[in-house]
Amino acid sequence: MADLKSYYKDLLDHYGPQRWWPAETPFEVMVGAILTQNTAWTNVEKAIRNLKSYGLLDPLKLHEIDQDTLALAIRPAGYFNVKAARLKSFMAWFVTRYGGEVERLKQIPAQRLREQLLEVKGIGPETADSILLYALELPTFVADTYTYRLLTRHGLLSEEAGYEDMQEFFEKNLPRDRALFNEFHALIVAVGKEFCRPKARCEQCPLRKRLP
DNA sequence: GACCAGGCACATC
DNA sequence: GATGTGCATGGT
User: Fold this and answer.
1) What is the value of pTM for the model shown?
2) Which nucleotides of chain C have an atom under 7 angstroms from any protein CB?
3) b/e string for A116-146 if b means 16 or more Cβ within 10 A?
4) How is domain A4-19+143-210 classified at the architecture level of CATH?
5) What is the CATH number of domain A26-135?
6) Is the CB of A194 under 7 A from strand C?
7) Domain with CATH 1.10.340.30 in chain A
8) Is the Cβ–Cβ distance between A147 and A185 less than 8 Å?
9) Of A96, A171, A184, A188, which has fewest CB within 10 angstroms of its CB?
10) Is A39 (CB) below 7 Å from strand C?
């Protein structure tokens, strides 16, 4: 059985605490989770800055605003038309069902909330889990493309593994600890940016000594 | 200029 | 059910 704790310790020693999610409020996390889909975070920061400066970083405001106007505001994040539509569909759900109140989301059991989020067009497993973990502080492990490359290249999962397989791998081999899941995923992104690019540089990875 | 980024939905076979 | 494609800006 893989000693995930030692992977975690190596990463934490090497990179230090990542202090995710970089946002001021849970709602900002949710918006950022949609904006960062397949996009560099630096681009998302610009889009969030725009939303803040226009006073739009608010569930009711985003629910009311015209989609094309929203697209202009989030332009730096890329895929702006797609993401404007996704933000609108998320707000339609969040505002009409929960009044745009984060506290009301917290009343719902995690499993049911995850299912509801996945029904929102534009929210897939990673975005849903990011919202659960980083906005609502629920102990759900977030997987992503870096996680996939790391697990498959280290021979911990086969290349046929899907999202749920990755998530299950972590959740079954670690204590269900919100803070641990938070930091671990962020550290995987940190090591991923440096060493888990499509063109691998695994020979210099800080986890190299754990490769078979 | 090529490559890539903290995905997802949809078309097509 | 698997596989391919569109979406787009901005940093390296």
Assistant:
1) 0.96
2) 6-11
3) bbeebebbebbbbbbbbbbbbebbbbbbbeb
4) Orthogonal Bundle (1.10)
5) 1.10.340.30
6) no
7) 26-135
8) yes
9) A96
10) yes
Residue A46 pLDDT exceeds 80: yes
For CATH 1.10.1670.10, the residue range(s) in chain A are: 4-19+143-210
Asked whether the predicted pLDDT for residue A49 surpasses 90, the reply is: yes
The whole-angstrom separation of Cα A144 and Cα A115 is: 18
**What is the Cα A169 distance to its own chain's centre?**
17
Is strand B in 7 Å reach of the CB of A197?
yes
CA of A80 to C1' of C7 (A): 8
State the Cα–Cα distance between residues A91 and A64, nearest whole angstrom.
9
DSSP 8-state assignment for residue A65? S
